[in-house]
Amino acid sequence: MSYLKTVCFVCLLSLCVGSQYTYASSVAFNQTQFDKIKQQYQGQPWLMLLWSVDCPPCFKELAIMQKLLAKHDDLAIVIINADADEGVMAQRKHIIKKFALTQFNIYHFADGQADQSRFLIDPAWYGELPRSYFVESNGTFHGKSGLVQESMVTQWLVKQPIK
């Protein structure tokens, strides 16, 4: 019986210690998920960030978001990995952990579904990254391709106060 207690204790300890390194599981992005996201944040401003494991400017943007969270811990962010390839799952997890963004809703384009996912988000978007959407509390989307600067997000937050 003492062996069983020891094993249970070790398992419990592993879960507790490992919990600080957890990764918010990534969900395949599709119409249903997009509708849920919009419903979840209805009436409040939020950011949607699209990135790739092969995009150095995307990492800069994720670092900017990490920094902003220190000042605005109630900032709502949806993070979508635009690599429609399950082969990058380990890289995706590592990058999200590295930038301490595990508390957010994390999505990824399903394998082979990049074109459909891009069109679903914005028919005028052709895949350039990083791509960010500033969503106002009234649901209006404003897309921006290229690196988003911290000052731009801060100015947007002033105009769209978080409730």
Q: Report the structural category.
A: alpha/beta
Helix content: 40-55%
Overall 3D shape: globular
Radius of gyration based on Cα positions: 18 Å
Oligomerization status of the protein chains? single chain
Low-confidence stretches: 1-22
In what order do the strands lie side by side in the largest sheet?
Answer: 1-4-3-2-5-6
- Count of discrete alpha- or pi-helical segments spanning 4 or more residues: 6
What is this structure, in a nutshell?
The chain has 6 helices and 6 strands, in the order αβαβαβαβαββα.
Can you walk me through this structure?
By secondary structure, the chain is an alpha/beta fold. The chain is built from six helices and six strands. Strands 1-4-3-2-5-6 form a six-stranded mixed β-sheet, sandwiched between helices.
Walk me through the topology.
Elements: H1 2-18, E1 26-29, H2 31-40, E2 46-51, H3 56-71, E3 77-81, H4 89-98, E4 105-109, H5 114-121, E5 131-135, E6 141-145, H6 150-159
Parallel strand pairs: 1-4, 2-3, 3-4
Antiparallel strand pairs: 2-5, 5-6
